[in-house]
Each structure stands twice: as C-alpha cells, then as structure tokens.
Amino acid sequence: MKTIEDLGDVAGLRVLVRSDLNVPIKDEVIGDDGRIRASLPTLVRLAKAGAKVIVTAHLGRPKGEPNPAYTLAPVAKRLGELLQPEGITVHFAKDVTGDDAQSLVQDLDEGEVLLLENVRYDAREESKDEAQRDQLADELSALADVFVSDGFGVVHRKQASVYDVARKLPHAAGGLVLAEVDVLKKLTEEPARPYVVVLGGAKVSDKLAVIDNLLAKADKLLIGGGMVFTFLKAQGHEVGKSLLEEDQLDVVRGYLKEAGDKIVLPTDIVVAPEFKADAPATVVAADAIPADQLGLDIGPESAKAFAAEVAAAQTVFWNGPMGVFEMSAFAGGTKAVASALTEVTGLSVVGGGDSAAAVRQLGFADDAFGHISTGGGASLEYLEGKELPGLAVLEED
C-alpha cells in the first residue's frame, strides 16, 4: 500500500483527501469532534509540505440531495479552529464539485485547506451504478492532482469518493488509515496473549461474523449490551422485556456449544420496568430476570469480573457498550470496562462507534487507551475477514 512519501514532493500539488468527518451534530453544535481531530495529522502534514489540500467527506444520510441538517459547515468551522494554531487557513465550498468548489480550488494557495460540502448530497456517491459513481469520481478527480485516502470509517464502502477516485489519480493511504490497519493486523495476526474481545451493543446479528472469526483467535469473548439477552435466552433463561433476536437463538446455541468457557456472560443484570433514565433500577441474577422488566446494563458483579479479565489481558478489542451508557443508572458496566482498558499494559483498542462515544462521554481521555478507532463498521468487517474495497484499491498500481 502506497504512502504519502511515495507521492514525492507535493508542494504546489492539489491533493484530494477523503477524510471521515462524520461527527454527531445537534443544532449546529458538534457533540464529539474525535473524528475531526483524528484527521488533523494528515492534513497538517500535507499543508506544511506546501500542498493545496482539498477535503471531501460526508455527514449522516442526506439521501443524495442537499439538506441543511447535514451540511458540513459546522465541521469546517471546527476544522478551522483546530488548524488555526498551525497557521493553516480553512475554506468551505457550498457544493461538492460545482461552481463554488471549482472557483475555490482555483484560488486555493499552497498550505491552505478547502473542505467541500457533504459528498452525500450527490446521489452518485453511493450509487450501485458504477457509471454514475464514475461520473462523480471524474468530477472530483478534475479538482486534484493526487488522492490520499484517510477516511478509515468508509474504506469498507465502494463509493465514488473512496473507491472510484483512487482508480483515477495517483493515490496513497493517509496516516490515519495506515495506523488503523496496523492495529487491526495486531489484533488478527499473532496477538499478544491473553487476548480478550469484549462485544456489546444492541444486536447479536451485527456481530455474528466477528464472533465466527474471533472465536478461534481470542482467549475470551466477553458478551454484554443488548445482544447478551439472546445468549441468555439460548441458555433457557427468562429475559423479560429485554431486547431479543429470536431468529438468532439457534446460531447462538451453536456458539455456546463450540466455545465452551471461552464465551463469558454476565452473572447479574441491571433491570428496570421501562427504557427511561429515571426508571427504578434493580440488580437481579442473569438467570432470574423478571418477566415485567428489561435488562439495561450488566450488573456490578459482572462489571467487576469483566474488568478483571480485561485488566489481565495483553491484547483487548472492545466494540459495543455494556449497557445504555447515555443514562447514568445504566452506565456502570461500560464505565468499568473502559476503566479496566486503561490499565492494560499491552494493546488496548476501542472499536469506534458507540464505544468511542461512550469513553468520551464518560470522561476518559483519548490517550488513556492504546487506540480509539475511527471506524466501527470498517473495523468489524476487517475482523470478520472481509476485503475492504477502499483498502484493496490502494494496493492497485
């Protein structure tokens, strides 16, 4: 895979960078700027080298047409604030490849950054029709001389700004993509042991392929979050009103039979009668959930046991919260796992998405962990053993 060094001297060149700036925004206020900050090293490096840096990125799901709710304008503002100490000016184009983008590219000076409007405003970005994606890729390519892929959160997508552009311009992987791939290789190729995988989140169906691939690699799989109730039900336990995927019970029974004591389930659960922050919470045994209650977190004894497994490991991959961490009464399990991760002396990886949001919301510093991924979905697909189109194209000449 080519790196920025392989592009040679980029001074004066127009460098199109695909970044992942898909951050949570409400009322034009960014809730977590982690992905923006993760994009900075590559942008700074290129700007300091004298490149004219043009950034393309997406935000949310605007369904192929302009929608003010998904404008990247607040992101451009935050990017400008973060790059100001570096002496780097950030401009913002009000369209993707139209007149404003073309005019601003023409006027862009060396060492400056231009962020284009949400690339998903253009329906061709995510089109299944290769000819349509190719048209948009042609327009994006016309704005630049070379391409740098640095949006790890989208490398599992075959999209115009990720895949098709790379086939049209001299290309390289950015520093963020290289760092993410390096970490994922450490998780899948001879990881230091003990190797513990912690899986949570709502649905077991979202993690089936990961479990398939990691059962043979990991020493322990700790299961929490909403997905745990399908495991408990598969063991024959009552799960009350908890989240349950009935159609996955046979698959889960197969995992439990195959894995033996590799799969670790909680022994107690925090339950409540309703999915509300102020609902009265109680702790019950995992095999004794009342029929009129729903599980919203792993219990305190389970949190302690999970934390002990994590803290004793040399390699840990965590994807998915242990409970409804957004509500303080149901955040204990997630907080315990996050805290234990900070004690790991080997490699600790927070697998992006809700896990990354959880550690920040709970007050943990990014540098308390070995690595916080910017791509939850991309990480999972890599760990499933799938080929990621956005990475594969970077290996082409």
TrEMBL record:
Substrate binds at residues 20-22, 35, 58-61, 120, 157. HAMAP family: Phosphoglyc_kinase. It comes from Kribbella sandramycini. ATP binds at residues 207, 295, 326, 352-355. It catalyses: (2R)-3-phosphoglycerate + ATP = (2R)-3-phospho-glyceroyl phosphate + ADP. Pathway: Carbohydrate degradation; glycolysis; pyruvate from D-glyceraldehyde 3-phosphate: step 2/5. GO terms for cellular component: cytosol. Keywords: ATP-binding, Cytoplasm, Glycolysis, Kinase, Nucleotide-binding, Transferase. This is Phosphoglycerate kinase. Belongs to the phosphoglycerate kinase family.
